[in-house]
Amino acid sequence: MKWVFIIFVVLYGLAMALLAVGTFGWFGQEEDPLSGVFLLPLGLPWNLLLDRVFGMDGPFVAILSPAINAGILYWLWKR
Question: What is the mean pLDDT of the chain?
C-alpha cells in the first residue's frame, strides 16, 4: 500500500502542476480550459457523488476530490 499511495500522490502532484501551467499560462503555454482534466479520474467517485447528489460543481470539487482518495489510501497504508 505504501507504493500505491506514493504513486497516487505523485500523479496527483503532476495533475495539479498541469492544472496550474494550463490555467495561468506558465512557461509560454497557452491558457487551456481543459487543463484540469487529469484530476477527474484521480477523484472518482467523489467528484461524481458531489456533483450528482449534492449539486456541488466547480474547480474546488475537482481539486479536492483526489485528496479524499489520497486520505483513504494513507489510512489503508497505516492500518
Answer: 92
Class of residue 23 by CB neighbours under 10 A (exposed 0-12, middle 13-18, buried 19+): middle
Q: What's the predicted TM-score (pTM) here?
A: 0.88
Distance CA 40, CA 45 (A): 9
What would the mean pLDDT of 17-36 be, rounded to a whole number?
A: 88
What is the C-alpha to C-alpha distance for residues 28 and 1, in angstroms, rounded to an integer?
38
Q: Cα(31)–Cα(25) distance, rounded to whole angstroms?
A: 5
Q: What total of structural domains would you count in the chain?
A: 1
Rounded CA separation 33/41 (Å): 17
* Under 8 Å between Cβ of 2 and 77: yes
The region of weakest confidence among 13-17, 51-55, 73-77 is 51-55
Sign of the dihedral through C-alpha 11, 49, 59, 74: negative
Range of the domain at 44: 2-78
